[in-house]
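Exam revision sheet. Question 4 asks you to relate a sequence to its structure. Input first:
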Amino acid sequence: MLRFPKSTLPTSRAILLPILLLMAACAAPPGTDDLADLTGATGVGGQVLQDGRPADGAFVYAYRSASRGLRGPADFGARVEPDGSYFLDLVEGEYHLVARLRKSGSDAGPPRPGDAWAIYPDNPVRVAPQSIVSIDFRLRESGTPRQGKQGTLTSGDTGFRGRLIAADGHPFPDALVLAYRTPEFHRMPDLTSPPSDRDGQFTLFVPEPGTYCLAARTGSRGQPRAGEPYGTLGEGDEACRRAVAGQLLDVGTIVLAPYR
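Answer key, structure tokens:
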């Protein structure tokens, strides 16, 4: 399966990458059901879906560092197969994972309108020798990963976790939790979380301890539109919680209901 060790990529790796990807596409990688058969292998495998269907043509990328926002050439990458399966052949270490499906069909380039993406919410992932970590992705369509003033932090040890549900009590996947320094929600957020998972679970990392006011919605820019799912932890200061260094505070449940 496809692997892009950083140490072996030349300076012109942006040119070489499409060639390597084309060559790797000729090989038949294992499907999700075959991961257990990869005795002695080291890496990450699973499925990538979009709207419940296999995201054929998407790519899963692994970065050793998130310092560049999970953009630019990745350290490792794998193409998603027609059945939605992928396998990243890795070496032991910690990785930040993201899946992308470019509308153009390209294997590289900046995010553009119509592209779809998903950041693994529990980055970084620790991969041990001769073991395979199972991770699935659900792609979300967006021109670029929606961010606040300070962006979307993909890892850390300080922040918040919880669960998003709809008004009927069902889990609310693919929504964002937004963090503000004050309970004034009618502006651009300071930080955003990666999308909530299929069970509505979210993790929002913050760069430093302090008080943050939380809201949840399906967009992050502009005023919420009438009918858009939206929710907070309460009115005014009741929507705020204090982040303590080295802790992921469980804030419980945020209910998203049509905005009025």
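Marking note for examiners. The CA atoms of residues 1 and 26 lie 10 Å apart.
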